Amino acid sequence: MQDPKFIIVVGTSAGGLQALTEFIAQLDEDMDIAVFIVMHLSRTGLSDFLVKQLQPLTNLQCQIATDNEKIRKGRVYISARNKHLLVKKGKIILGGGPEENRWRPSIDVLFRSAAASYSSSVIGIILTGLLDDGTTGMAVVKRCGGISIVQDPNEAEYPNMPMSVLNNMEVDHCISLSEMGDAITAILKTTPASVEVPEDVIIESEIAERVVVDFENIKKIGDQSIFACPDCGGGMWNMMKKKGDLDRYRCHIGHLYSENDLVVKQEEVLETTLWVALRIMEERKTLLKKMEGDHFKKGLKTTAKEYTEKIEVMEYHVDKMKEILFKTQKIM
Question: Is 84 a catalytic residue?
Fold first, then answer.
Protein backbone atom coordinates (compact mmCIF):
# COMPACT_ATOMS: atom_id res chain seq x y z
CA MET A 1 0.00 0.00 0.00
CA GLN A 2 1.42 3.35 -1.07
CA ASP A 3 1.97 5.97 1.61
CA PRO A 4 0.10 9.28 1.38
CA LYS A 5 2.10 12.01 -0.33
CA PHE A 6 2.09 14.09 2.87
CA ILE A 7 1.74 13.28 6.54
CA ILE A 8 0.00 16.08 8.45
CA VAL A 9 0.62 16.25 12.21
CA VAL A 10 -1.50 18.58 14.32
CA GLY A 11 -0.97 19.67 17.92
CA THR A 12 -3.32 21.65 20.14
CA SER A 13 -4.61 21.89 23.70
CA ALA A 14 -6.80 24.58 25.30
CA GLY A 15 -9.32 25.93 22.79
CA GLY A 16 -8.43 23.11 20.43
CA LEU A 17 -11.89 21.63 19.87
CA GLN A 18 -13.23 24.70 18.09
CA ALA A 19 -10.00 25.13 16.14
CA LEU A 20 -9.98 21.49 15.03
CA THR A 21 -13.58 21.61 13.82
CA GLU A 22 -12.79 24.58 11.59
CA PHE A 23 -9.55 23.01 10.36
CA ILE A 24 -10.93 19.53 9.60
CA ALA A 25 -13.88 20.97 7.68
CA GLN A 26 -11.42 22.26 5.05
CA LEU A 27 -9.98 18.81 4.24
CA ASP A 28 -11.51 16.48 1.67
CA GLU A 29 -10.98 12.95 0.36
CA ASP A 30 -9.20 14.11 -2.81
CA MET A 31 -6.21 15.26 -0.75
CA ASP A 32 -3.31 12.81 -0.77
CA ILE A 33 -2.79 13.03 2.99
CA ALA A 34 -3.09 11.24 6.31
CA VAL A 35 -3.74 13.42 9.36
CA PHE A 36 -2.59 12.74 12.94
CA ILE A 37 -3.91 14.76 15.88
CA VAL A 38 -2.77 15.11 19.48
CA MET A 39 -4.96 17.29 21.67
CA HIS A 40 -4.13 17.24 25.35
CA LEU A 41 -6.56 18.89 27.68
CA SER A 42 -7.75 16.13 30.00
CA ARG A 43 -5.87 13.10 31.29
CA THR A 44 -9.10 11.13 31.14
CA GLY A 45 -8.89 11.29 27.35
CA LEU A 46 -11.03 12.96 24.68
CA SER A 47 -10.46 10.51 21.84
CA ASP A 48 -14.00 9.18 21.36
CA PHE A 49 -15.48 12.63 21.84
CA LEU A 50 -13.16 14.13 19.21
CA VAL A 51 -14.01 11.45 16.66
CA LYS A 52 -17.75 12.10 17.13
CA GLN A 53 -17.27 15.85 16.86
CA LEU A 54 -15.03 15.83 13.78
CA GLN A 55 -16.52 13.06 11.64
CA PRO A 56 -19.67 14.96 10.55
CA LEU A 57 -17.49 17.80 9.27
CA THR A 58 -15.39 15.88 6.72
CA ASN A 59 -15.59 12.98 4.28
CA LEU A 60 -12.20 11.77 5.52
CA GLN A 61 -12.58 8.85 7.92
CA CYS A 62 -11.91 9.89 11.54
CA GLN A 63 -10.81 7.23 14.00
CA ILE A 64 -8.80 6.56 17.14
CA ALA A 65 -5.28 5.41 16.26
CA THR A 66 -4.51 1.76 17.01
CA ASP A 67 -1.15 0.07 17.47
CA ASN A 68 0.53 -1.38 14.34
CA GLU A 69 -2.26 -0.13 12.09
CA LYS A 70 -1.26 0.61 8.49
CA ILE A 71 -1.33 4.27 7.53
CA ARG A 72 -3.99 4.95 4.91
CA LYS A 73 -4.67 7.95 2.72
CA GLY A 74 -7.78 9.91 3.62
CA ARG A 75 -7.76 9.06 7.33
CA VAL A 76 -7.73 11.32 10.38
CA TYR A 77 -6.08 9.53 13.30
CA ILE A 78 -6.80 10.75 16.85
CA SER A 79 -4.36 9.91 19.64
CA ALA A 80 -5.47 7.26 22.12
CA ARG A 81 -5.66 7.99 25.86
CA ASN A 82 -2.39 7.75 27.79
CA LYS A 83 -0.36 6.52 24.80
CA HIS A 84 2.16 8.40 22.70
CA LEU A 85 1.09 8.53 19.06
CA LEU A 86 4.04 7.79 16.78
CA VAL A 87 4.21 7.66 13.00
CA LYS A 88 6.53 5.01 11.58
CA LYS A 89 7.13 4.31 7.91
CA GLY A 90 3.83 2.81 6.77
CA LYS A 91 2.30 2.19 10.20
CA ILE A 92 1.20 3.64 13.52
CA ILE A 93 2.88 2.89 16.84
CA LEU A 94 1.31 3.57 20.22
CA GLY A 95 4.15 4.13 22.68
CA GLY A 96 4.14 3.69 26.43
CA GLY A 97 7.31 5.67 27.02
CA PRO A 98 7.74 8.37 29.68
CA GLU A 99 5.74 11.58 29.57
CA GLU A 100 7.20 14.53 27.67
CA ASN A 101 6.33 18.02 28.86
CA ARG A 102 4.10 16.38 31.47
CA TRP A 103 1.92 14.71 28.80
CA ARG A 104 1.37 11.33 27.25
CA PRO A 105 0.42 11.60 24.41
CA SER A 106 2.83 14.43 23.67
CA ILE A 107 2.69 16.70 20.64
CA ASP A 108 6.49 16.75 20.42
CA VAL A 109 6.62 12.95 20.30
CA LEU A 110 4.17 12.83 17.38
CA PHE A 111 5.97 15.53 15.39
CA ARG A 112 9.42 14.03 16.02
CA SER A 113 8.35 10.53 15.00
CA ALA A 114 6.76 11.77 11.78
CA ALA A 115 9.86 13.78 10.88
CA ALA A 116 12.10 10.78 11.63
CA SER A 117 10.10 8.54 9.26
CA TYR A 118 8.86 10.91 6.54
CA SER A 119 11.31 13.85 6.73
CA SER A 120 10.33 16.45 4.09
CA SER A 121 6.90 14.88 3.46
CA VAL A 122 5.60 16.15 6.80
CA ILE A 123 3.37 19.16 7.39
CA GLY A 124 3.41 20.26 11.04
CA ILE A 125 0.52 22.39 12.33
CA ILE A 126 0.31 24.04 15.77
CA LEU A 127 -3.04 25.45 16.86
CA THR A 128 -4.29 27.19 20.00
CA GLY A 129 -2.99 25.96 23.34
CA LEU A 130 -1.19 26.66 26.60
CA LEU A 131 2.56 26.50 27.35
CA ASP A 132 4.96 25.20 24.69
CA ASP A 133 4.43 21.53 23.85
CA GLY A 134 4.93 21.29 20.09
CA THR A 135 7.71 23.85 19.77
CA THR A 136 10.52 21.31 19.88
CA GLY A 137 8.57 18.97 17.61
CA MET A 138 8.03 21.69 15.04
CA ALA A 139 11.75 22.53 15.12
CA VAL A 140 12.47 18.88 14.28
CA VAL A 141 9.98 18.96 11.40
CA LYS A 142 11.82 21.94 9.96
CA ARG A 143 15.25 20.35 10.46
CA CYS A 144 14.05 17.35 8.48
CA GLY A 145 12.76 19.47 5.59
CA GLY A 146 9.06 19.53 6.48
CA ILE A 147 6.59 22.40 6.28
CA SER A 148 5.60 24.39 9.38
CA ILE A 149 2.19 26.02 9.77
CA VAL A 150 1.11 27.97 12.85
CA GLN A 151 -2.29 29.42 13.66
CA ASP A 152 -2.16 33.21 13.82
CA PRO A 153 -1.87 33.86 17.58
CA ASN A 154 -3.98 36.99 17.18
CA GLU A 155 -7.02 34.78 16.52
CA ALA A 156 -6.07 31.82 18.72
CA GLU A 157 -8.20 31.42 21.85
CA TYR A 158 -5.01 30.55 23.76
CA PRO A 159 -2.00 31.96 21.86
CA ASN A 160 0.81 30.45 24.00
CA MET A 161 1.60 27.45 21.82
CA PRO A 162 1.60 29.32 18.48
CA MET A 163 3.62 32.16 20.04
CA SER A 164 6.18 29.75 21.46
CA VAL A 165 6.82 28.34 17.98
CA LEU A 166 7.04 31.81 16.44
CA ASN A 167 9.43 33.00 19.15
CA ASN A 168 11.83 30.13 18.49
CA MET A 169 11.95 29.70 14.71
CA GLU A 170 10.97 31.01 11.30
CA VAL A 171 7.81 29.21 10.17
CA ASP A 172 6.63 28.70 6.61
CA HIS A 173 3.09 29.90 7.28
CA CYS A 174 1.55 31.90 10.13
CA ILE A 175 -2.07 32.10 9.00
CA SER A 176 -5.66 32.07 10.18
CA LEU A 177 -7.57 28.82 10.46
CA SER A 178 -9.69 29.73 7.44
CA GLU A 179 -6.58 29.83 5.22
CA MET A 180 -5.13 26.46 6.17
CA GLY A 181 -7.09 24.40 3.64
CA ASP A 182 -5.82 26.51 0.75
CA ALA A 183 -2.27 26.39 2.12
CA ILE A 184 -2.36 22.60 2.26
CA THR A 185 -3.80 22.39 -1.25
CA ALA A 186 -0.89 24.48 -2.52
CA ILE A 187 1.67 22.35 -0.66
CA LEU A 188 0.21 19.16 -2.15
CA LYS A 189 1.12 20.44 -5.63
CA THR A 190 4.81 20.46 -4.69
CA THR A 191 7.31 17.61 -4.59
CA PRO A 192 9.65 17.98 -1.59
CA ALA A 193 13.32 17.09 -1.92
CA SER A 194 14.54 14.21 0.23
CA VAL A 195 16.38 15.21 3.42
CA GLU A 196 18.59 12.98 5.57
CA VAL A 197 17.23 12.64 9.10
CA PRO A 198 19.75 13.62 11.83
CA GLU A 199 20.88 10.86 14.19
CA ASP A 200 19.61 12.63 17.33
CA VAL A 201 16.09 12.79 15.88
CA ILE A 202 16.10 9.04 15.30
CA ILE A 203 17.43 8.34 18.81
CA GLU A 204 14.80 10.48 20.52
CA SER A 205 12.02 8.96 18.43
CA GLU A 206 13.13 5.48 19.51
CA ILE A 207 13.10 6.56 23.16
CA ALA A 208 9.38 7.37 23.01
CA GLU A 209 8.59 4.28 20.94
CA ARG A 210 10.48 1.55 22.77
CA VAL A 211 11.91 3.26 25.88
CA VAL A 212 15.34 2.67 24.35
CA VAL A 213 17.40 4.75 26.74
CA ASP A 214 20.95 4.42 27.99
CA PHE A 215 23.75 6.71 29.06
CA GLU A 216 25.68 6.33 25.81
CA ASN A 217 22.74 7.45 23.66
CA ILE A 218 21.97 10.37 25.97
CA LYS A 219 25.62 11.50 25.81
CA LYS A 220 25.37 11.62 22.02
CA ILE A 221 22.47 14.07 22.03
CA GLY A 222 22.92 16.16 25.19
CA ASP A 223 25.18 17.45 27.95
CA GLN A 224 24.62 16.58 31.60
CA SER A 225 23.00 19.37 33.61
CA ILE A 226 22.81 20.13 37.33
CA PHE A 227 19.07 19.37 37.47
CA ALA A 228 17.40 16.20 38.73
CA CYS A 229 14.34 14.72 37.06
CA PRO A 230 11.23 15.68 39.08
CA ASP A 231 9.60 12.36 38.13
CA CYS A 232 12.28 9.76 38.89
CA GLY A 233 15.11 11.73 40.54
CA GLY A 234 17.67 10.79 37.89
CA GLY A 235 20.16 13.21 36.40
CA MET A 236 18.99 15.29 33.42
CA TRP A 237 20.77 16.17 30.20
CA ASN A 238 20.42 19.50 28.42
CA MET A 239 19.33 18.57 24.89
CA MET A 240 20.16 21.97 23.44
CA LYS A 241 23.96 22.16 23.66
CA LYS A 242 24.86 19.40 21.24
CA LYS A 243 22.95 20.73 18.24
CA GLY A 244 21.75 24.28 18.83
CA ASP A 245 18.30 23.01 19.78
CA LEU A 246 15.80 24.60 22.16
CA ASP A 247 16.50 24.42 25.91
CA ARG A 248 14.97 21.20 27.17
CA TYR A 249 16.01 18.48 29.57
CA ARG A 250 15.81 14.67 29.38
CA CYS A 251 16.70 12.08 32.00
CA HIS A 252 18.23 8.73 31.05
CA ILE A 253 14.87 7.03 31.79
CA GLY A 254 13.29 9.22 29.12
CA HIS A 255 11.26 11.91 30.90
CA LEU A 256 11.63 15.17 28.98
CA TYR A 257 10.79 18.77 29.84
CA SER A 258 11.08 22.11 28.14
CA GLU A 259 12.39 24.81 30.47
CA ASN A 260 8.87 26.19 30.96
CA ASP A 261 7.38 22.79 31.76
CA LEU A 262 10.30 21.91 34.05
CA VAL A 263 9.56 25.02 36.11
CA VAL A 264 5.86 24.07 36.29
CA LYS A 265 6.68 20.50 37.35
CA GLN A 266 9.20 21.69 39.95
CA GLU A 267 6.49 23.92 41.43
CA GLU A 268 4.12 20.96 41.66
CA VAL A 269 6.75 18.74 43.29
CA LEU A 270 7.84 21.51 45.68
CA GLU A 271 4.33 22.14 46.95
CA THR A 272 3.65 18.40 47.32
CA THR A 273 6.91 17.97 49.25
CA LEU A 274 6.06 20.82 51.60
CA TRP A 275 2.60 19.38 52.31
CA VAL A 276 4.17 15.99 53.05
CA ALA A 277 6.63 17.66 55.43
CA LEU A 278 3.77 19.46 57.19
CA ARG A 279 1.81 16.22 57.51
CA ILE A 280 4.81 14.44 59.09
CA MET A 281 5.37 17.31 61.51
CA GLU A 282 1.71 17.30 62.58
CA GLU A 283 1.84 13.54 63.11
CA ARG A 284 5.02 13.90 65.18
CA LYS A 285 3.36 16.60 67.29
CA THR A 286 0.35 14.36 67.90
CA LEU A 287 2.58 11.45 68.91
CA LEU A 288 4.58 13.64 71.29
CA LYS A 289 1.34 14.82 72.95
CA LYS A 290 0.28 11.22 73.46
CA MET A 291 3.63 10.36 75.02
CA GLU A 292 3.46 13.48 77.20
CA GLY A 293 0.03 12.45 78.51
CA ASP A 294 1.11 8.85 79.10
CA HIS A 295 4.06 9.94 81.22
CA PHE A 296 1.96 12.38 83.26
CA LYS A 297 -0.49 9.55 84.01
CA LYS A 298 2.42 7.41 85.23
CA GLY A 299 3.61 10.24 87.47
CA LEU A 300 6.80 10.74 85.48
CA LYS A 301 6.53 14.50 85.46
CA THR A 302 10.19 15.23 84.57
CA THR A 303 10.07 13.05 81.49
CA ALA A 304 6.63 14.43 80.57
CA LYS A 305 8.00 17.99 80.68
CA GLU A 306 10.72 16.97 78.24
CA TYR A 307 7.99 15.97 75.81
CA THR A 308 6.20 19.26 76.50
CA GLU A 309 9.31 21.15 75.40
CA LYS A 310 9.57 19.05 72.25
CA ILE A 311 5.89 19.76 71.47
CA GLU A 312 6.49 23.51 71.80
CA VAL A 313 9.44 23.32 69.39
CA MET A 314 7.39 21.24 66.93
CA GLU A 315 4.46 23.69 67.11
CA TYR A 316 6.87 26.49 66.23
CA HIS A 317 8.14 24.57 63.21
CA VAL A 318 4.59 23.68 62.11
CA ASP A 319 3.62 27.37 62.16
CA LYS A 320 6.74 28.27 60.17
CA MET A 321 6.04 25.52 57.63
CA LYS A 322 2.49 26.82 57.13
CA GLU A 323 3.89 30.31 56.51
CA ILE A 324 6.30 28.92 53.90
CA LEU A 325 3.49 26.98 52.21
CA PHE A 326 1.18 29.96 51.95
CA LYS A 327 3.97 32.23 50.69
CA THR A 328 5.01 29.59 48.16
CA GLN A 329 1.44 29.33 46.83
CA LYS A 330 1.33 33.09 46.31
CA ILE A 331 4.53 33.25 44.24
CA MET A 332 3.58 30.17 42.18
Answer: no
pTM exceeding the 0.90 threshold for the entire prediction: no
40 catalytic residue (yes or no): yes
Q: Which of these is catalytic: 108, 133, 200, 245? A: 133
Coil, helix or strand at residue 32:
coil
- Distance CA(156)–CA(214), nearest Å, equals 40
Query: What are the Cα distances from residue 280, in Å, to 266, 284, 286, 319?
Result: 21, 6, 10, 13
CA 87, 92, 94: angle at the middle one, nearest 5? 95
Q: What integer is the mean pLDDT of 310-327?
A: 90
Sequence-distant (≥ 6) Cβ neighbours of residue 191 within 8 angstroms: none
Tell me: do 75 and 177 sit in the same domain: yes
- Output the CA–CA distances (angstroms, integers) from residue 42 to 16, 24, 104, 228, 318, in the order listed: 12, 21, 11, 27, 35
pLDDT tens digit sequence for 27-54: 999 999 999 999 987 666 678 899 999 9
Do both 59 and 183 map to the same domain? yes
Q: pLDDT of 68-107, one tens digit each?
A: 999 999 999 999 988 999 999 989 999 887 788 888 899 9
Tell me which residue range forms the domain holding 308: 262-331
Task: Give the tens place of pLDDT for each residue, 222-272.
Answer: 888 999 999 888 888 887 644 545 778 888 777 888 888 888 888 888 888
Task: Report whether 151 contacts 177 (CB < 8 A).
Answer: yes
Give the residue-averaged pLDDT of 279-283: 93
Please state whether 101 falls in left (phi above 0), alpha (psi between -120 and 50) or beta: left
Cα distance between residue 12 and residue 19, in whole Å: 9
- Same domain, yes or no: 226 and 250: yes
Question: Is residue 317 annotated as a catalytic residue, yes or no?
Answer: no
Q: CA dist 270 to 100, 109, 159, 235, Å?
A: 19, 27, 28, 18
197 lies in some domain? no
